[in-house]
Amino acid sequence: MKSFSKFVNEVEIRDKRSYIKYNLVPLNSVGCYVPGGNAVYPSSLIMSAVPAKIAGVKRVIVCSPPSKDKKINSSVLVAADICQVDEIYKVGGAQAVAAMGYGTNVIKPVEKIVGPGNVFVYQAKKIISEDVGTDLPAGPSELLVIADDTANKELIISDLFAQSEHGVDSLCGVVTPSKKLAKDLIQVIKQRVKQVERKDIISKSLLGNGFVVLARNIQECINFSNYFAPEHLEIMTKKQDLLAKKLTSSGVVLVGDYTPAAFSDYGLGTNHVLPTGGSGKFYSALSSIDFTRRFFVAKTTKEKLANNVNRIEKLANQEGLINHGKSVKARFVKENGKTISKKGN
């Protein structure tokens, strides 16, 4: 199959007077929200700012909440410098989203807001999307593990602990056809969650929102995952690669014991700004394409329009838009009201 660009070029070579082009131009300004406060996320800054710069965005700003010492963590500032961020502001939450979208006396508004955040940031982006561009719904973190009786229980528990430490509203769970694995996971997690580092967050997250789903078979696990559309999906089963081909609605699919979600966060090469809340059914991971606008540029000739006058008129009349057809016919009417001969049906 020919690429779209090659097809367009061939059309232009055949008839340079008539063409359709698909133009791709970068946005002028973008605001990147970087979570902060109790945790530090220089990686989230990188995941948002780098694709924007690659796309050619002229002005990239960052808003991030300060920690208790009223400062933005130095690692976030260093990441902003390396990524050539143009402006960085010490503000977080829904108010940061409003500031970037509508502007303040200090912060000039941007054309689009991107980046993950808590439930308040998530809702603020949904509200402001009526006036300002926003990226995919990137809210509280999610992890789903599809596992069978061959899975390493210790790795599953480790990954659940890792993902749930993002916040008490994180949603992490396992779906498995193995009754033994399901029982073992529940028992061990309840025991270990009391001693794990950052247990205040992890225990509230897993004991409040965590889940283990017992499925009848692997196909039911696949169906559950495609409906749930998790942000991160790990596969720890037999025939992992074959199973991965049947999954259609996750932000990222991570196959095997050596592809944990933490690797996708910190260097695998995938972007970790991913759709959450089931939006993986219709949204994709953040990429440079999200920092561009696409539009058509078209030009045609008198002959080509003439060949389509009657078709256009019939469709216009069918839809009750009579003047659409007349606007085309007007191009073939002389000043004395006579119609110029034209081809076509």
Descriptors for this entry?
345 residues; 12 strands; 3 domains; Rossmann fold; 39% helix; five-stranded parallel beta sheet; alpha/beta
How would you characterize the overall build of this protein?
This protein has 345 residues and is an alpha/beta fold. It folds into 3 domains: 141 residues, Nitrogenase molybdenum iron protein domain (Rossmann fold); 132 residues, Rossmann fold (3-Layer(aba) Sandwich); 41 residues, no CATH class. 39% of the residues lie in helices and 18% in strands. It contains 14 helices and 12 strands. The strands form 3 sheets. A 5-stranded parallel beta sheet has the order 4-3-2-5-6, with helices on both faces. A 5-stranded parallel beta sheet has the order 9-8-7-10-11, sandwiched between helices. Strands 1-12 form a two-stranded antiparallel sheet. Helix 3 links the parallel strand 3 and strand 4. Helix 2 runs parallel beside helix 3, helix 6 packs across helix 8 and helix 13 packs antiparallel against helix 14.
Relative strand content? 15-25%
Q: What's the arrangement of strands in the largest beta sheet?
A: 4-3-2-5-6
- Uncertain segments of ≥5 residues (pLDDT<50)? 1-5
Number of strands: 12
CATH class of the largest domain: Alpha Beta
Gross morphology is globular
**What is the CATH topology classification name of the largest domain?**
Rossmann fold
What percent of the residues sit in helical stretches (DSSP H or I)?
25-40%
SSE pattern: HEEHEHEHEHEEHEHHEHEHEHEHHH
